[in-house]
Amino acid sequence: MKPTRLWQISISTSTQAEEAVAALLERLFGQSASVYLPHDSPQPVVTVFSGKRNENARAKRAAIQAGLRHIAETGLDPAPAQISIRRVPREDWSESWKKYFRTIEIGPTLLIKPSWSKKKARPGQVVVVLDPGLSFGTGQHPTTAFCLRQIVSKRALGLPPSLLDLGTGSGLLSIAAAKLGYSPVRALDSDPVAVRVAKANARKNRVAHRVILSRSDLTRLPVRSKTRYHLICANLVDSLLIAQVRRIVNRLHPDGVLVLSGILENQFAAVEKCYSHAGLRLIECQVQNGWKSGTFAWVTQP
Ligand code: SAH
Known about the structure:
Blueprint: E1 7-12, H1 18-29, E2 34-36, E3 45-50, H2 57-73, E4 82-87, H3 90-96, E5 104-106, E6 110-113, E7 126-129, H4 142-153, E8 163-166, H5 172-179, E9 185-189, H6 192-204, E10 211-215, E11 229-235, H7 238-243, H8 245-249, E12 252-264, H9 268-277, E13 280-288, E14 291-298
Parallel strand pairs: 6-7, 8-9, 8-11, 9-10, 11-12
Antiparallel strand pairs: 1-3, 1-4, 2-3, 5-6, 12-14, 13-14
The structure holds S-adenosyl-L-homocysteine.
The site of S-adenosyl-L-homocysteine has 22 residues, from helix 4, helix 5 and strand 9.
């Protein structure tokens, strides 16, 4: 049998369009796409590998260009929208995507590494092993990295501090928190695939018994809640954060802090205004590659 040709298709795009571009590549090639930020450029690169037969590079490029035009028509600017298509030698296939997944260190405290990495932890450093999969959250994205830094730095909140992870994706934040001593750790996601992946990742990291994971939709949780958490991480989208402000803040402990992430820089002011009205103030924030994340605390304890 003739070996299947393998292609690596990458598009350099904008932060606002990265998700739409990833969805386009997934639709065209039937494979999950990965997004990474090159060290030398602020533009995210979306990549997919394809082994489909009977498709030439010109046809692929035309289909991508049509998809990018459609994205632009919906109001998201995908510029620079540079497309790169290259043949990958078959023997490279299983290895080539791995280079996008670096190990991540959150100071001397936390190391996140894929299972193939040989990097050794520093003495006392907590290790989370996580391979890229179908669910969001390998720590590579600035929004996830901000949440991880907050989880590391807020370990002193309460003894032990409790954590609520709204939209857990791969489960990374909850797994790291459980390993760092947070308890209880509760995580939810409305996507059944995410919950399955997060459960498997928690098992691989031997914290399945310490992370309470459920498939739930934030918008359907009771508005009020008796249980309150010292740290809440919500790496969601701005519209959801604004619409669900009550459900979110009603779960925050009087001494707790709330981490809001997944917000494009130009949408942050609206989110901050909404949470200020709810009685919180911004105590820390960070802008990276067009994403702005913030940590909030109560102005006066509720
Ligand atoms: N916490 C991870 C993943 C964030 S991606 C990280 O920081 O990297 C956002 C996740 O929120 C996705 O897995 C998505 O399925 C989930 N999500 C989106 N809307 C939701 C909702 N209404 N209720 C619960 N989860 C939701």
